Amino acid sequence: MKKYKIVIVGAGPSGYFTAQAFQKVEKEDISFSIDLIERLPTPWGLVRSGVAPDHQKIKTVSKVFEKIAKEPGFRLFANIELGKDVALRDLRDQYDVVVLATGAANGRRICVPGEDLANSFSAADFVPWYNAHPDYVNTEVDLTCDTAVVIGAGNVAMDVARILAIDPTELDPTDIAEHALVKLKQSNIRTVIICGRRGPEHAAFTAPELRDLPKLENTDVYIDEKQIKEATERANIGGEIEKDLRNNLEAMKLIAEHSKKGVDRKLEIKFLAAPIEIKGDKKVEEVVFMVNKVEGGKVIPTEEAFTIKAGLVITAIGYDAVEYPGITIENGRINNIAGHIEHNVYTTGWAKRGPTGVIGTNKSDSSDVVDLIVENLSEPKVSEGITALLKSEHEVISQLAWEKINASEVISGEIAGKPRVKEVDWKRLISLGRS
Ligand code: NAP
């Protein structure tokens, strides 16, 4: 029997699905001990700090993660930071295989003047703020203005816009951060405008998310019907419209047509609006857009511009992978070939392919990478693994410690009528794990 030591860095969906893929390929003559390392004192990655709190159903995938964690040979080592507490080269020496499932945590910059004004945020900062990520508790979000602009036409833009536009009491029965819920309840924002730089036919939204918008109980959602009609005509030029696009356009048409409730909370989706400047005296006051048009299948700028008066701007235009000593990033992804970086180091998930796909996409992706790893395995190493690398005083959050944190949050949630109340303080999280 050959037993290989695997270390996976990053306890988000792609990390867990990688562990699961290793568990699935175990045979009589080959087995794996799997150490899952995580920087935060809590696992689950974007399922905890990315998925929108009003999308609790998506978070049920955490049950799968906990099942993976119960399998023999699996160990969680949270509260360990790659590059600080352990070096990649040491992991490489101590383990047969290192898999970097470190995601893509850096928000892409929009690179327009005014981007760094106060109350202009990347979704990479704003989303973890409302999702109780311990590093973002002190993000200074000001919701006293009446209008917010969200730049980007993808599902993250839609999540952010929805959280800002819905009646915050709808978030009471969710696991949203308490500090964010308090702020949202005091918010003066009543109009949220999502701006996509290209046409409706180019939007990165997905149809199920679009179809949910007319169902919002306390928010009217607007899309210009003419823009959808023109986009559909353009899409039709190339023959039959591909299924996902057809579904998207139909869902947008439904939004445009559905009768409005006449409530004061509004969410609007504008297309062909490319941001060129964010203006304000120290703080965001307005956003200037260039009007684009689609001509001959190409999106080109017109001479026309318009301004939206808004006191908050969130850019949700994609993410880049974080750089660590020993790896290089290109086009926002770790340099890799089909998940292989070099020697015994691999990558998976958003770090490997960029920030695309839904949580489930990481399952097949990780499974493909594990197949490649297994093909490349040689003789197992004789080494100690993580224990040889950590300082004796380093406080690790093990699976058991995490289960204590989890139980404590869930119990607090039961009392408050929520799935959980997330602890946001790093030190308190660690002490909950000790209790
Ligand atoms: P995304 O789907 O790639 O969308 C990014 C958007 O930003 C695109 O509309 C893009 O427009 C726009 N953009 C990029 N650069 C821009 C610029 N300089 N100026 C203006 N707009 C710009 O990324 P995402 O929304 O971050 O989502 C990441 C992944 O997570 C996606 O696969 C998404 O489906 C998934 N996700 C899923 C859910 C869900 O299932 N509920 C929720 C959240 C996220 P162009 O197309 O013109 O470049």
- Radius of gyration, taken over Cα atoms and rounded to an integer in Å: 23 Å
| Content-based structural category | alpha/beta
Low-confidence stretches: none
Number of helices: 14
Largest sheet: 6 strands, mixed
Q: What is the overall silhouette? A: globular
Small-molecule binders: NADP nicotinamide-adenine-dinucleotide phosphate
Overall number of strands: 19
Helix content: 25-40%
**Overall pLDDT, averaged?**
97
Distance from N terminus to C terminus (CA atoms, Å) equals 38 Å
Strand content: 15-25%
In spatial order, strands of the major sheet run 3-2-1-4-19-18
Strand and helix layout:
Blueprint: E1 2-9, H1 13-25, E2 30-38, H2 46-49, H3 62-70, E3 74-78, H4 88-94, E4 97-100, E5 106-107, E6 120-122, H5 123-130, E7 147-151, H6 155-165, H7 178-186, E8 191-195, H8 207-212, E9 220-223, H9 225-237, H10 243-257, E10 266-270, E11 273-279, E12 286-295, E13 298-309, E14 312-315, E15 319-320, E16 329-330, E17 333-334, E18 340-342, E19 345-347, H11 350-353, H12 361-376, H13 399-416, H14 426-434
Parallel strand pairs: 1-2, 1-4, 2-3, 4-19, 6-14, 7-8, 7-14, 8-10, 9-10
Antiparallel strand pairs: 5-15, 11-12, 12-13, 16-17, 18-19
The structure holds NADP nicotinamide-adenine-dinucleotide phosphate.
NADP nicotinamide-adenine-dinucleotide phosphate binds at residues 55, 110, 151-157, 159, 196-198, 202, 204, 206, 209, 316-318, 355-358.
